[in-house]
Amino acid sequence: MLSISGKPYDTLEQVIGISGDSDQSLKVYDIQYKDVDLNDDGTFKTGEILKAINEKTKMVYIQRSAGYSWRPAIRIEDIENIIKEVKSVNPDVVVMVDNCYGEFLDYKEPTDVGADIMAGSLIKNPGGGLALTGGYVVGRTNLVEKVAARLTSPGIGKECGLTFGQTRSMFQGLFMAPNVVAGAIKGLYLHPSYTNHLIVKFAQNPMLTGATSFRPLNSAHLKKWLNFVKAYKPLHQ
Ligand SMILES: Cc1ncc(COP(=O)(O)O)c(C=O)c1O
Asked: Could you tell me the end-to-end alpha-carbon distance of the chain, in angstroms, rounded to an integer?
């Protein structure tokens, strides 16, 4: 597994076996892991990535959004270009994208530009604020079948699964999602325009990238933001 957007977000570190001491991590199953960091501006280090791919590389992994780290999200055109480069070196490599926070932000999704498989979270963009839990996996049928076999039961895969009666809110959330994401994006545009004098530096400018539905703030920004809210309150009293 070669992660080409730096280390994945914290939780996955234990799953992969980069941290923690789980006896069920990918590492324990002899799946080796390597990563290549992004450039500071959020672009891929193409040369380094292509050098890191060899005949043992089965999966190239891209995390589209920042997760809990302080870096820009990756633009869809950059994902498209790097997938072309990766496939030119080894067409059999499976490209997997964690699309969390990226859905409905662009006209295309990573699977439209060459990703073989993609996953995301229903408690973010595609759940439209209504899905209580869950996630999705989409992509090439044979790969989705493999995921299903791990996720539910080996041998019967997608034939079984438990939704705890949540199907209705999941699909209602999906229906609402593009609208909800559009609202979030409007907030991202509006927010800096009235707090710019308070919040000096963000991890990224969504106007430039359009690649994520959230804006990371550090504790200094948060303090300024809270002061702004406190100052605003008396207007309503
Ligand atoms: C980049 C990224 N991918 C995936 C997830 C997983 O989402 P969930 O909490 O639904 O498992 C998160 C959660 O924060 C995330 O930041």
From this structure: 57
Q: Taking the complete model, does pTM exceed 0.85, yes or no?
A: yes
Please indicate whether residue 220 or residue 142 has the higher confidence score (pLDDT): 142
For the chain, the average pLDDT equals: 87
50, two tokens = 């292509």
pLDDT at 213: 66
> Is 50 exceeded by the pLDDT of residue 206?
no
To the nearest 10 degrees (0 to 180), the angle between helices 167-195 and 219-232 is 80
Strands 59-63 and 117-121, by their bridges, are unpaired
Ligand 1 centroid to residue 58 C-alpha, Å: 23
What is the domain partition of the chain in residue ranges?
A: 1-237
Q: Which of 65, 99, 100, 125, when mutated, tests ligand 1's pocket best, judged by the most ligand atoms within 8 Å of its CB?
A: 100
In whole angstroms, give the CA distance from residue 188 to residue 16. Answer: 33
Q: Which CATH architecture has domain 1-237?
A: 3-Layer(aba) Sandwich (3.40)
Average pLDDT of the residues in 123-151: 95
- Mean pLDDT across 92-115: 95
| Residue whose CB lies within 8 A of the most ligand 1 atoms, among 68, 124, 170, 215, for a mutation test | 124
* Closest-lying ligand 1 atom to the alpha carbon of residue 68: 16
CA 185/CA 210 separation, integer angstroms? 8
